[in-house]
UniProtKB/TrEMBL annotation:
Record Pfam families: RRM_1 (PF00076)
PANTHER family hit by this protein: RNA AND EXPORT FACTOR BINDING PROTEIN, RNA ANNEALING PROTEIN YRA1
Name of protein: RRM domain-containing protein
Gene3D superfamilies: 3.30.70.330
Biased composition (Polar residues): 1-11
Region (Disordered): 1-25
Domain of life of the native organism: Eukaryota
Domain RRM as annotated: residue spans: 67-145
PROSITE patterns xrefs: RRM (PS50102)
Keyword terms of this UniProt record: RNA-binding
Length: 163
């Protein structure tokens, strides 16, 4: 590089010597050779869209339909069929058990249990919350749909709270 280039701006130097051009995040030797692109873009054949399947979401409404609970703090070696058998024998008929697994395929100790009746889920949450399994208290929570959550009680003003 000569001393005359030291006096020039970087833009001027780059404009004069275009040895490398970036294309698709790669440095390509050559100048301003342009790749011809088709006019109007590329046409790809498309398939007809599949009809969306109608999925019935469980309502889990109070005293009607199925009920769900989430059981956490379970031992890592517990399997779905063991959970299903236990809740079936202590509470009532179980529709489905879903055990949560981590990225390594190991259980996270959290299961969702779906009962045929909402009352069974309520009973399980009341009776089995805090029950110790391998000296660890399991946590049983009742899951309800968002539309069934009661509205929060409005907070009283500060003036109403002063005695």
């Amino acid at each position: 590089m000569s001393s005359s280039k030291l006096d020039q701006s970087l833009d001027t130097i780059m404009g004069e010597s275009r040895q490398f051009v970036r294309r698709n995040n790669r440095r390509v030797r050559g100048g301003a050779k342009a790749i011809a692109t088709p006019v109007g873009g590329v046409h790809k054949p498309t398939r007809a869209a599949k009809a969306a399947e109608k999925v019935m979401a469980p309502t889990g409404g109070p005293r009607s339909g199925e009920g769900k609970i989430q059981v956490s703090n379970l031992p890592m070696d517990v399997e779905e069929n063991q959970i299903k058998d236990y809740f079936h024998s202590t509470i009532g008929p179980v529709k489905k058990v879903l055990l949560t697994y981590g990225p390594n395929g190991k259980s996270r100790g959290v299961a969702t249990v779906i009962f045929h009746k909402h009352d069974s889920a309520v009973k399980a949450a009341k009776d089995l919350d805090g029950l110790k399994v391998d000296k660890r208290p399991m946590k049983v929570e009742l899951l309800v749909a968002a539309k069934e959550v009661p509205n929060p009680v409005p907070a009283r003003s500060l003036g109403d709270r002063i005695e």
